[in-house]
Every structure is written in structure tokens, then in C-alpha cells.
Amino acid sequence: MNPNDFGKVAVLMGGDSAEREVSLMSGSGVLKALQSRGVDAYAFDPAERDLGELKQSGFQRCFIALHGRFGEDGTVQGALELMGIPYTGSGVMASSIAIDKVMTKRVWLAEGLPTPKYVLLRRGHFDRGQVVAIPDELGLPLIVKPAREGSSIGVAKVQGYSEMVDAVDQAAALDADVLCEQFISGDEVTCPVLGSGEDARALPVIRIVAPSGNYDYQNKYFSDDTKYLVPCGLPAGEEEAIQEIVLKAYRVLGCRGWGRVDVMIDAATRKPSLLELNTSPGMTGHSLVPMSARAAGISYEDLCVQLLASAALDQHKGVRAK
């Protein structure tokens, strides 16, 4: 598309979620890239401006660079649907399911897709005895995380029974639902997807090697010690198998535009397990979608323009019944 065809574009960044800092970094990168390609793009922070200003100010398209709640969970998508402003990424339903790691697991399991075993705790509906008994069901170590946070915020790797209560309390402070998940020991990989439906395609798989195996918030965004391997170096056939299962995971949630699926590969069995799907992935200097796209021959600037070109609405205005 000619840059002029996009019209006036808002890059939504910042917001009110716990991932605000990362979103501002993502949005700044996207804004600079779009402007460098002649797009009439502007920063728009929903934490500082009312969303209604998008319509009032004549914005014709939105690039969503928001992460987490109130940006990646279907709420902003719903507002843009009502205003009739096309936006990047998944629609209302897919966004609201994917932000919730438990709901995502339920859909994947219903479709026969592999994901680690889990126990769901609801704030105010469990006691200490139930918490310390969870390792009996899931084994040790295990992972405890808020059901609806991203960027590894509130995530804890529990090594022993004595650590369970603090880990659950930490996650429950961020979310009413706490996900306790079986830990899969092995290779940690991620695979971006571009497109929609049967036209969606998986980009090259990235293998993540974090210091001490701890891919936390600091190591994700601010450490130069984390290694990202692309080509991923997996045994022959494994990358293709990962891409195939990732595409299925993306499609069954009804995602569109783009996304990124995180996967663990069991060291002993080499079987993959789906962890989560990000419908508004990071676009920072450390982010993985641009890295994978670059390995596929797509520059950061071209990726941003391509994603903007895919902006759409779930609901198209039809003929009103008389």
C-alpha cells in the first residue's frame, strides 16, 4: 500500500497495564519505523487521552502497541470496533481469550493440543493446605503465575514446598486467578505468526537461552546475556513440527494479523507443549517477532508497514433491517 492510503494513523502505546514501560518502548519503535516510511503516524497513549479522541481527531487506522490489560485483552479492540477504526492484531474474542492463560489452555486442550498440566486457584477460595499440596499433583519444580499478566510479571519458579505460599501470594496480588503449571524441562522456543486463517504463516522459530534458564522480566528486556538463536538449531524436522503446532494453536483461538506463541520442548521426549499466545507482541530492541522476521528477510520497517496494512475490523457494517 502507498503510505498515503493509510490515512492518519495512531500508534497506541503506554496504557495502564503493568507492561506500560515495555509498551512505550514498543510503540516508540513502531512510530519511528512508520514515519520513516512516510506514514502519517502519531503517538497516542490511552492512559493520558480519552479513546474517543481517536474518532474526534480523524484517525483512520490504529497500530496497537499496547501490552497486557486494557490493550491486549479485547477492551481497546471493542472500543475501536464501536468507533469503526480498523486496528492491528486479533479481534475482541481472540484477544480476550489469549490474555487469559487458563482459558487459552481450555481451548487448546479441547482441540487436542498439548499444554502443561495445571491447577487454577481463585483468590479467596483456597487455603494454605491446598496451596502446599499442589506440588503433589504437578511435581517440582513448578511455575506459578498470574493468569492475565505478560512479560513474566509475577511469575515464580517454585523449587520446594516451602516456596509455594509466597509464590501464590505474589501472583494473587496481581490477578484474581493464579495459574500453577507443570514445569517442562528442556528447550524454550517461540514462534511468531503473520496473517489470518488459512493464509497465516509461521516465521522462523527462535530458541531462547537465558542466564541460569531464567527468562524473567529483566532478562527479557534489559539483559544482553540472554541468547536468541535463529536459526534455532533444533534437530531436523523439529522446527517444522513446532511451526505446524503453533499455526494450529493460533487458528483455533481465531487470531488474526499477527501473534507469537511460546513453547517448551521436553528434553527427554522432545515433545512440544504450548505455554501461551501473545496477540500484541513486543516490538522493542530485544523483541522476538522483529528478530524472527529479520531472519525471514523482513526488515523492522517493512514488518511495521505490513502489520499496519493488515489492520481490520471484526464487524463490518451491514444493511440495517427495516
From TrEMBL:
GO cellular component: cytosol
Pathway listed: Cell wall biogenesis; peptidoglycan biosynthesis
Enzyme class: ligase
UniProt keyword terms in alphabetical order: ATP-binding, Cell shape, Cell wall biogenesis/degradation, Cytoplasm, Ligase, Magnesium, Manganese, Metal-binding, Nucleotide-binding, Peptidoglycan synthesis
A single BP term in Gene Ontology: peptidoglycan biosynthetic process
Residues annotated for Mg(2+) 1 binding in this entry: D262, E276
Protein family (similarity comment): Belongs to the D-alanine--D-alanine ligase family.
Protein name: D-alanine--D-alanine ligase
Organism of derivation: Ramlibacter lithotrophicus
